[in-house]
């Protein structure tokens, strides 16, 4: 078993509970780690024997285009999409961060992490 991860992927998207958030948008950061058996890829040097992190990026980019109210929902959509593309992975962990969340005070970012 091993872990394939992408860290610090950034998007500008239109998520949020409040209408203003969905209208003006915000910056988001995604971190993902996928636990899987890539021993064949390590041995044979074949991309087809592992999880392609280019695919992971494309999955995340597609999900970020879908408007959502909650960070938790975004994380679940990413996990479901990764599992659909790679059904044999052991685990997927996703963190979704929103920069400068509208909480009425100073906060660099709000973050949720979901494992599935």
From TrEMBL:
Keywords tagged on the record: Folate biosynthesis, Lyase
Molecular function (Gene Ontology), one example: dihydroneopterin aldolase activity
Identification of the protein by name: 7,8-dihydroneopterin aldolase
Pathway the protein acts in: Cofactor biosynthesis; tetrahydrofolate biosynthesis; 2-amino-4-hydroxy-6-hydroxymethyl-7,8-dihydropteridine diphosphate from 7,8-dihydroneopterin triphosphate: step 3/4
Domain Dihydroneopterin aldolase/epimerase: 4-116
Provenance organism: Arcicella rigui
Functional description taken from the UniProt entry: Catalyzes the conversion of 7,8-dihydroneopterin to 6-hydroxymethyl-7,8-dihydropterin.
Reactions it catalyzes: 7,8-dihydroneopterin = 6-hydroxymethyl-7,8-dihydropterin + glycolaldehyde
Family per similarity comment: Belongs to the DHNA family.
InterPro entries according to UniProt: Dihydroneopterin_aldolase (IPR006156), FolB_dom (IPR006157), GTP-CH-I_C/QueF (IPR043133)
EC number(s) recorded for this UniProt protein: 4.1.2.25
Source superkingdom: Bacteria
């Amino acid at each position: 078993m091993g872990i394939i991860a992408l860290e610090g992927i950034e998007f500008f998207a239109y998520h949020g509970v409040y209408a203003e958030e969905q209208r003006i948008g915000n910056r988001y950061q995604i971190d993902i780690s996928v636990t899987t058996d890539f021993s064949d890829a390590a041995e044979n040097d074949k991309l087809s024997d592992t999880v392609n992190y280019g695919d992971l990026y494309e999955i995340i980019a597609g999900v970020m285009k879908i408007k959502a109210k909650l960070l938790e929902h975004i994380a679940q959509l990413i996990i479901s999409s990764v599992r659909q593309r790679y059904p044999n992975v052991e685990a997927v962990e996703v963190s979704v961060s929103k920069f400068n969340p509208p909480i009425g005070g100073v906060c660099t970012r709000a973050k949720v992490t979901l494992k599935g």
